[in-house]
């Protein structure tokens, strides 16, 4: 009979179990008492956190029908694990994923109609769901809105978000209504601890009278304690959680003329970034960052550009890269999502979605027949008793 592996060596092996399957460690703990003892050791759990600093992409939520009947779909990133099965979610429209939770916001009466919105928060790992009460009074126009979900401790800090997916959370609902003074954008915050919504915070009669929330599906970006939502034209809506303040910021000025989608996203060192696809001189993924100039003014700086043909499998890109929407030519290749806290960006074309890891430059197809794709990430490590 071969000798047993030493505990230290066995621990090194267990540390390298695939992080995109949160139940893998739990299954390993059921193998025998010795494995369970190693996995329950605080030293092992600390080292696991040190090695796997970025959250794992556990799966993807995509909108497969943005009209009645609505439908979103969950697709696991690692189907071979058998832990999470793909499933359709009829009647739900995914809006955001963060800190182990997914948020769905669905117009009750259908698109382009006034009426209540249906808010549901779902944990794909546990299948636990919570229906939120609609904000009261309901906004008179529900076609221009966005929403985000996040851990309640985000505004005050003190949480590393590695195991808070079952704790208190907040949902931030940002919407635009039309008044005689122009567009008015407001934000309301739901707290799971009070089961109620805050009073609205609004930008009233601001100089950007033509700015409103972009009605197309697009997840928010969280940088520090500030959420960013894509707005109309070349603007974005900024909501500071701690100060409960709304404001409007510029996006890079010439991005608005390219016809493709821009995605706001967090970069390293708590910097707001933006990703877009450029056609010339070659089809490239271009990154921008919002930085402070020497005179203290926030401005956008163009970063690296990465040729998509170098990142994607051979012949994956469509030969026809421009499409006519009836009034203008637009790009047929777009950014369709990103995984917060990682270097992963999702690129979509011809109804295919590829996940691209910017640092390793690896890519793989993860979704098809999409309208919007939101990665579901998790730090979740199951609680294991020794």
UniProtKB/TrEMBL annotation:
<dbReference type="InterPro" id="IPR001810">
    <property type="entry name" value="F-box_dom"/>
</dbReference>
<dbReference type="InterPro" id="IPR056594">
    <property type="entry name" value="AT5G49610-like_b-prop"/>
</dbReference>
<protein>
    <recommendedName>
        <fullName>F-box domain-containing protein</fullName>
    </recommendedName>
</protein>
<dbReference type="Pfam" id="PF00646">
    <property type="entry name" value="F-box"/>
</dbReference>
<feature type="domain" description="F-box">
    <location>
        <begin position="5"/>
        <end position="48"/>
    </location>
</feature>
<dbReference type="InterPro" id="IPR036047">
    <property type="entry name" value="F-box-like_dom_sf"/>
</dbReference>
<dbReference type="Pfam" id="PF23635">
    <property type="entry name" value="Beta-prop_AT5G49610-like"/>
</dbReference>
